Amino acid sequence: MIDSIKDVAITGGTHGNELTGVHLVKHWLSHPAEVQRDSFSTELHLTNPKANKEVRRYIDQDLNRQFNIEDLKNPELQGYEQQRAKSLDALLGPKENPRIDFIIDMHTTTANMGMSLIFNSSDPLVIGMAFYIKQKMPHATLFYNPSDRLEDNFLTSIGRLNGLLIEVGPIAQGLLNYQVYFDTHTAVMHALDYLQQRNKGLPLNLPAQMEGYQFTKKIPLPENTEGEITAMVHPNLQDKDYHAIKPGDPLFITMAGETIVYEGEQMVYGAFINEAAYYDQNIGLSFMEKINITLQDSNL
Fold it and tell me: Does the residue 107 lie in any domain?
């Protein structure tokens, strides 16, 4: 049996222009009973306050890419978000022996991804939480991106048993939308209920396997020799997150209207299609493969 959860952190505003998590944290700070459960303590944290104030994704660097163990230990990394990562590691970690058991980090996306439950760990507790939420919210999609916790650069990786990133869209940056807010709120409540039931040894009745998607790679937008983009996401692909992309299907269309097709040999699936936040790296979408995710622990 997995050991019990004692300390949980709910975080929002890791990207400063994603306002849903910011306002949910503020709401729960005023209404703490909503996130309290009697078998563990719950903390609430606004993780990137300067970027929140300026309604920018980040000031110097993407905060949700700064939590690799080597980066946290590197004194030469002095950017605002790099310093915030070190502060959060001191507050919630340290990463080698964290104080916090589990982190729920709230995000939004401009891509048409609906409710996506993103998790980087194969730990049965994490996969069990994703399965539990999907049972309660069948429209949710499981997004699996496995990585070693110490090498992982997401905020959730500070947690002793890692965490869950809740990503909801589509919504423009810097906006609130009630349905996105409500869905995020609902998913967090289910996550906390799952931990409560698990701590108390109550039956969860989870399946042994669920369908999901596993990240494979990011696909850049076409560029010229100066690094300027020369094409955009093809209209046939726009808003088709988690739909199949077959060899020969349109991926991009140039400024002159010429179609660029997918030249791979295997069918893939798209996610974060035309995500506004990734234009700083000229990334057009991510490729995923459809997989069956297995829950290994029979006690769940």
Answer: yes
CB atoms within 10 A of CB 165: 23
Q: Are residues 246 and 188 in the same domain?
A: no
Rounded distance between C-alpha atoms, residue 86 and residue 78, angstroms = 10
Domain count for the chain: 2
Structure tokens at 51: 């970027």
Quote the pTM value.
0.96
Q: What is the residue range of 122's domain? A: 7-210
Longest dimension (CA), the chain: 61
Pairing between β-strand 114-119 and β-strand 141-144 as defined by DSSP bridges:
parallel
On average, the pLDDT of the chain sits at 96
CATH code of the domain in which 260 resides: 2.20.25.160
- According to DSSP, the β-strands at 41-46 and 7-12 are parallel
Residue 1 has pLDDT above 70, yes or no: no
| Dist CA 246 CA 236 (whole Å) | 12
Question: Using an 8 Å Cβ cutoff, are 213 and 143 in contact?
Answer: yes
Summarised one tens digit per residue, pLDDT across range 59-91 is: 999 999 999 999 999 999 999 999 999 999 999
Residues 193, 235: one domain?
A: no
Residue 298 has pLDDT above 60, yes or no: no
Peptide bond into 32 cis (omega under 30): no
